[in-house]
Design a protein that fits this description.
Elements lengths: L1 H21 L1 H4 L8 H21 L6 H18 L2 H11 L5 H10 L2 H17 L3 H28 L28 H14 L5 H11 L1 H9 L4 H24 L14 E7 L2 E7 L1
Antiparallel strand pairs: 1-2
Helix pairs in contact: 1-7, 3-8, 3-12, 4-12, 6-11, 7-8, 8-9, 8-12, 9-10, 9-11, 9-12
């Protein structure tokens, strides 16, 4: 278990190191003379402000924001029409999926590994006074707290039945405490996509982004093969994560909380697309 956690941390640090090399000229500045305690207090403040911003943001939504919500809801409804068939298809393929893929998906999306990896990542950035890594950790922590609260409440509030228990995707038991009715949205998807999107935003190179998103998609896809989530559980978990990470990142950028905070050009434009008999989500870099 510890070896797997260490391996994940090494991957994250290596990824951020590549990103730092790409933006060396942009981030050149005098060495930070603040103490470790001062930096930790500053980061904690920015984390709390980021969380506050995301939870209060709906009060400031404008017409275009509600239009986006409507589009997402429409897309979710359209995708839900193939939930039962999609789940049957994925479950049927599960015996042919390599065990290492399923194991990696389960581990990467689990809260224990996720938060240990985050702690290691932030600790490295704090004690080396690496502002880029500290900022990335603040982005991940703020976003994961917000998405975690939302997905936990949603699971109970919606009470959607999980696949593989003899229930259809349209069966709900609102405010249920039963585990088999805690399907929507996918928690593993929320955690893995939150981290992947936050890290990918530190890169300008499209191929680097694509590689990180590919790794981040392992957990969501593995949940489909395991038959514990519907397609819409995974899709909406991903949409939630991306929206929250983008909101926190924009907040950190606008408030100039850190040097080198991801620019608007690094955001991804996500759209639902309906073409003939195909339904999908497209991201434009």
């Amino acid at each position: 278990m510890l070896q797997k956690v260490f391996f994940l941390i090494v991957i994250f640090l290596a990824s951020l190191e590549l990103s730092a090399q790409e933006t060396t000229l942009e981030l050149e500045k005098s060495k930070d003379t603040s103490s470790i305690g001062q930096l930790a207090a500053y980061d904690a403040k920015q984390t709390l402000l980021g969380i506050k911003h995301t939870f209060t943001r709906p009060f400031h939504w404008k017409k275009k924001d509600f239009a986006t919500i409507g589009t997402v809801a429409l897309g979710a409804f359209a995708l839900s029409t193939i939930d039962d068939e999609g789940s049957t298809f994925f479950i049927r393929q599960e015996p042919d999926v390599p065990n290492i893929f399923q194991e990696a998906g389960t581990r990467f999306g689990s809260p224990q590994v996720y938060f240990i990896a985050n702690a290691g990542l932030y600790g490295f950035g704090l004690f080396t006074k690496n502002e880029k890594i500290r900022k990335t950790s603040v982005l991940i922590i703020s976003s994961s707290f917000t998405t975690g609260v939302i997905q936990s409440l949603s699971k109970t509030a919606f009470g959607r039945a999980r696949p593989g228990n003899g229930y259809k995707s349209t069966e709900f038991r609102f405010w249920s405490k039963e585990a088999q009715f805690h399907s929507f949205p996918s928690g593993h998807t929320v955690l893995s996509i939150t981290m992947a999107h936050a890290i990918a935003k530190q890169f300008d190179n499209v191929w680097h982004k694509a590689g990180i998103y590919t790794l981040g998609s392992i957990a969501p896809v593995s949940r489909l093969f395991s038959g514990v989530h519907w397609l819409t559980d995974v899709a909406m978990g991903a949409v939630l994560s991306i929206a929250v990470v983008d909101a926190v990142d924009k907040f950190l950028f606008n408030t100039k909380a850190y040097h080198g905070t991801a620019k608007e050009k690094n955001r991804i434009s996500w759209r639902f697309r309906f073409t003939g008999n195909k339904i999908g989500i497209a991201g434009t870099f």
